[in-house]
Amino acid sequence: MKKVVLKAAVLLCAGIGMSACKSSKQAVQPIDLTGEWNIVTVNGDKINAANTPFIGLDMKEKRVYGNAGCNRMTGSFEIDSLHPGKIQFGQIGTTRMMCPDMETESKVLQALDNVTGYTETDQGLSLTDAEGKALMTLEKRQLPAFSINDLNGEWIISAIDNTQLGKTENTPFLAFDIEQKRVHGNAGCNVINGSFSQEEGKDNSLKFSQMISTMMACPDMETERQILEALSKVNSFSSNQDQTLALLDENGTEVLTLTRNTGEKLSGN
């Protein structure tokens, strides 16, 4: 009986074509989109921006983040599980800085809005439109080796939500003590102290807690309020291409920008 069934299966394969019987072995293998990708070309034009634009794809949360050439961007995307190679980005929000070259950013955002698919290339990925035309080519981004230990020392707070800080009573800064997991500094008027922690298994995670400050009143308290509010949102950190430190919220948006202190005497030490 077993031999009869086996013969029938062989004849069936011959009748419908051997390719159908091998379909399970020849199924399209999913492409790993996880991680961060440098944007190399947009609409066939090579990107020559001072800050290389990139996108990061969080497959678990279906979240896209990155830099469009000037401003940080964040949003969502959907993968069509029934049709491999199909992807669509939702509304993408950006910060609002102005840079000398905004043309690259405009091209990147417009291209992402028209993406409906992706294919693997020898160099990385190609994001395509509904007709299969390449809108954007991507290469895997090589992240600099940057860990929590690199935070040790003093950092001047140079921007909030990508807006450069003006003059304050005292220079806002944060000083990290990695061994003690403590942080202190100045929010522009008052001295601040607290602790920080990391989520297990996430090397770039960062959360501040038990942040307390002195209670002096200064002519401008708005900057201090914004800094303390931003600190409460911090969820992770990353190193920018210009060697500044980005403190990010849970959506990957840069809420504070820090610059390494190279010798300035700071109030609060």
From TrEMBL:
Gene3D superfamilies: 2.40.128.270
Cited InterPro entries: DUF306_Meta_HslJ, HslJ-like_sf, Hsp_HslJ-like
Stored Pfam families: META
Keyword vocabulary terms for this entry: Signal
Signal peptide: 1-19
Keyword Signal: yes
Residues annotated as domain DUF306: 33-138, 152-258
Keyword Signal: yes
Stated name of the protein: META domain-containing protein
Organism expressing this protein natively: Bacteroides gallinaceum
